[in-house]
Amino acid sequence: MKNILIIGAGRSATALINYVLKQSESFGWFVTVADANPELAISKVGSHPQGRATWLDVTKVNDRRELIERADVVVSLLPAHLHIEVAYDCIRLKKHLITASYVSKEMYRLGDEARNRELIFMGEMGLDPGIDHMSAKQKIDEIIAKGGTLKAFRSYTGGLIAPESDDNPWHYKFTWNPRNVVLAGQGTAQYLEKGKYKYIPYNRLFEQYRTINVEGLGDFEVYANRDSLLYREVYGLGDLPSILRGTIRNAGFCDAWNALIKIGLTDGSYPILESKDLTYHSLMEAYLGPREGTGSVRERIADFLGETPFSPVMRKLDWLGLFRNKRIGIERATPALILENLLLEKWKLKPEDKDMIIMRHEFEYEMDGENREVTSTLVLEGNDSVDTAMSKLVGVPMGIFVKLVMQGKIKETGVNIPVMKQVYDPVLEELKEHGVVFKEVERVMPADA
Amino acid sequence: MKNILIIGAGRSATALINYVLKQSESFGWFVTVADANPELAISKVGSHPQGRATWLDVTKVNDRRELIERADVVVSLLPAHLHIEVAYDCIRLKKHLITASYVSKEMYRLGDEARNRELIFMGEMGLDPGIDHMSAKQKIDEIIAKGGTLKAFRSYTGGLIAPESDDNPWHYKFTWNPRNVVLAGQGTAQYLEKGKYKYIPYNRLFEQYRTINVEGLGDFEVYANRDSLLYREVYGLGDLPSILRGTIRNAGFCDAWNALIKIGLTDGSYPILESKDLTYHSLMEAYLGPREGTGSVRERIADFLGETPFSPVMRKLDWLGLFRNKRIGIERATPALILENLLLEKWKLKPEDKDMIIMRHEFEYEMDGENREVTSTLVLEGNDSVDTAMSKLVGVPMGIFVKLVMQGKIKETGVNIPVMKQVYDPVLEELKEHGVVFKEVERVMPADA
């Protein structure tokens, strides 16, 4: 095997391309990077002698197949809904396929065909999902191997801003998909606590956050993800009584975000007909009902939220400019789109800003009559607004896995996610060289816990 | 013109079919009723000598066109998204088309073609939309014609249960689409009050209801519809400073429905993974967070809602059986689907139950230096659970309009809704014979209003 094809040269591609090009110097591989924007692909490949940039409109079936035909391993960084077309080609042309996206039902249905053709289709091979699976499953398997009985598993991840680049009262900037941040949590979060199902609807999600402490960094807030229950099956923990997955934000974020929800600014379902000509101030005024008394719009919003005029929440709303007479200027936008556009400007990384990933796992288990708890924590900062920890931790695991496949070290064929020892051990081992080091703290819990 | 084709023989078809068959006796028309369920069509046509029932799978293009080809006027009672295919056929085959559904953008785009072929494409020709347009626009045009300047227009409609059939604490039963009732109001309601935009997000919609009094029936609650602003253009009232459309419910409904929203039971976006094996009681327990104290699930829900244990809201929740240990029994259902299935049973009309339509318009206008208000109110009861006021008021306006078209009395071609005098005058006049009589009260408002 000599040829690697990477489809997509966007934000998450840089670290992957750099890793694979570097490895190709030792192994003599040849790397093709294809993108609808050929200049983007050229800029990522540079003048590397073993790299080639090419133009690809992925909807052009013949062009796509021609490129895939010439590869041994294909990495798809396309938007998630486009992977499946590449997957069909890979089945047909007998090529291995790697993505960082959640594995869809359609993709899982290709499992038998992939296995029959001895193909490796690996999904969820990035950060979250990806490193979360590998690091959690490694520890879970370790606890079970030494005779422990797992009682609880909780896992939280946050894409945050590094303390030295944190210069706004929200203590947050966008380091990944802004739209997902604005719409986060809509639906009903589901998890298990001591054998009981727990559901949190969106209207309470950012009220019912929990607090975690990260050594050297202080307290953070965690709100529940929608999908915790799914992970019991995925990790083979069908009867685990407590499982929770969550998202980490800096202290103070959840109360302020909850204020935006209560006002109505995260609704993405229906456009505001006159949004173009409104100002942010008139938008806020329009949300005030008859019961919010008199006073300025800002005072009435504070009153409605149950906040004092200069509370931390109100200061965060002020900083966003929600009470300013500036025109919104977007036609027929949903409240969520209006908010996203405002935040894109306010929460934009400056060129030198560093992002920070925090991943925290909590495992509770019983062994030798004792209740024990292990917390395992990863903190990693990026270098600047381009070379982010986020893009590195999405790209490098895929790169390492590409290498393992090219070297013939992966035997598990079919459609998988990285929860098997054969995969997580070597990938996590090499990730240590890239700063992915989890710090573990283990303690015996009091008997009544 | 001799031939009328009615596509769809469901709930809303009965009154229309009866009306048109009756008229056909005087006018010598021939009426074809087509449905995917031929027995349903047969049952509606009976043995009427001028009626014919036929089977039609509307996705079978040739069958559909063959039927349309033989008609002069086509009435489509299909689900809203299917009208457009019928409309294309009607353009091609030069047939008039009538529906009771909201006119879609695609349908409006056929306006020029319909006009060029001298075709009448009339949409929104039922109750709401339909009678609301006609009765409101008639009054608005009358006020303007006599020299008044309109200052405010508010219009509310409710499909309710008649007082003599009202035997549950919610004072509500389903008389139309249950799914729409469960999901009602999601998004952001928009209206205008004294020149200012007002937006109400879903999380406050059922708190911010207003109260209206209907003579002889007492107080009712009104929550805002999502789309009030659209009606300014539709009625040619571009600079009207106050406009609001709303939905009428019996007193006490909104607070109790708001409790269901707060608990999380109206979320239709994401399935509860383990819904099949839960009981309603365990579902309610799962919604309780850590802050709801101790006590029974019912007590903690009351506490969370800020209700006393036997408040009207808690009694309504009790009556639904939300605290019973009965299995939900639906696999992977969203909370909204779980609620809909529960309500389908609890809010089902008994055979002899009568429904009741209330429509209320409020017009404020200035004339001769005086501020005046007219309220115009329609109350109409059905006969039983089949012959409902709802189905009558959806079907009969379409029937009357079919007659007017067949008689050549309608000159307005193109895609329209019934807001022109030529249409609303004769339709409303004949509707009086069917009990559609609005009661008007006019008063001079105090100078400071």
Structural features, described:
The structure is a homodimer of 449-residue chains. The first copy, chain A, has three domains: 3-123, 3-Layer(aba) Sandwich (Rossmann fold), CATH 3.40.50; 131-254 and 352-390 and 435-444, Dihydrodipicolinate Reductase, domain 2 (2-Layer Sandwich), CATH 3.30.360.10; 271-333, no CATH class. In chain A, 36% of the residues lie in helices and 24% in strands. Chain A is an alpha/beta fold. The N and C termini of chain A lie far apart (54 Å). The mean pLDDT of chain A is 95. Chain A has helices spanning 13-27, 38-45, 61-69, 83-93, 105-108, 111-116, 131-145, 178-183, 202-205, 230-234, 253-263, 280-286, 297-305, 312-320, 335-346, 389-406, 421-431, and strands at 3-7, 30-35, 51-55, 73-76, 96-99, 120-122, 149-161, 188-193, 196-201, 210-214, 218-224, 242-250, 355-367, 370-381, 414-416, 439-444. The first copy, chain A, contains 17 helices and 16 strands. The longest helix of chain A has 18 residues, at 389-406. In chain A, the strands form three sheets. Chain A has a seven-stranded parallel β-sheet with strand order 3-2-1-4-5-6-15, sandwiched between helices. A seven-stranded mixed β-sheet of chain A has the order 10-11-12-7-13-14-16, with helices on one face. In chain A, strands 8-9 form a two-stranded antiparallel ribbon.
